[in-house]
Write a structure and sequence with these properties.
Layout (H helix, E strand, L loop, with lengths): L4 H4 L2 H11 L2 H17 L4 H11 L2 H12 L4 H11 L2 H13 L4 H10 L2 H10 L7 H31 L10 H16 L3 H16 L7 H29 L1
Helix pairs in contact: 2-10, 3-5, 3-10, 3-11, 4-10, 5-6, 9-10, 9-11, 12-13
Length: 245
């Protein structure tokens, strides 16, 4: 990963960091809000710092906060975090052809450092898996550069949020700033009709299923978007043949 000197010296490492830096402001707001939320939920500073370093997943951390505050059973908290992060199963399936040449240890490390933003930036930069060693190195360097800066920004902003939890007021709207950051990235990816359709389907499903327990509306949105996209892709050849006939 990013600790390898050969990757740090590659131009794609700097490019990955540069592309992430353009999104960093929203991530700072998200990290600050998460740090504040952990302390406000009743966790100690030590527990908040430990969760920041070990979990490294803002959405599941925020989903777990209300449950921790009401002393919910551990299995409920773990199940909620599991459901919220199921989207990374989809991410990993997509990234599998890109990373199977790496060692298992490196793939495990990549799984820890991969986030929504780094996944989106990487797949936007590289549309197909590498076919040569030089291309593989470029892919590794790019995601390493983006992941390094992403991890550093998240850790610093979250820890600052923990330290200043009693000073930062909720009226700052930090969570909304983070959401706007992710929304901007999503809009930049809507480069085809199918991607626009999948985004609309996912959004409508997530809102319609908002009342589902354990954040299952997120999983429902992902599943429905994937299903509709697969059906549309499957129907394209038949529609093309019909139009030629």
């Amino acid at each position: 990963m990013f600790w390898q000197r050969r990757l740090q010296q590659h131009p794609e490492f700097r490019l990955g960091a540069k592309h992430y830096a353009q999104q960093a402001l929203g991530q700072v707001a998200w990290g600050l809000m998460t740090g504040v939320a952990m302390v406000k939920s009743g966790m100690s500073v030590f527990e908040s710092v430990a969760m920041t370093l070990c979990v490294y997943a803002g959405s599941s951390q925020l989903a777990a906060m209300p449950l921790i505050a009401v002393a919910a059973p551990a299995w409920v908290i773990l199940a909620t975090g599991f459901c919220v992060n199921l989207r990374f199963v989809v991410f990993s399936l997509h990234l599998r052809p890109y990373v199977m040449h790496l060692s298992r240890g490196t793939r495990m490390a990549l799984g820890y450092f991969t986030t929504d933003i780094t996944y989106v930036l990487f797949t936007k930069r590289f549309h197909t898996p590498a076919k040569s060693d030089d291309e593989r190195t470029a892919h590794e360097a790019y995601i390493a550069g983006a992941s390094f800066l992403n991890w550093a920004v998240w850790m610093v902003s979250s820890l600052v949020g923990v330290a200043l939890a009693n000073i930062i007021p909720p009226s700052w709207g930090l969570g909304f700033a983070g959401i706007l950051c992710l929304l901007g990235i999503q809009c930049s990816l809507a480069s085809s009709r199918l991607r626009v359709l999948s985004s609309v389907v996912a959004g409508v499903t997530a809102v319609s299923a908002y009342a589902f327990p354990l954040k299952l509306n997120i999983i429902s949105a992902i599943a429905m978007a994937v299903l509709v996209s697969m059906l549309v892709e499957h129907a394209k050849p038949a529609l093309a043949q019909g139009s030629r006939a």
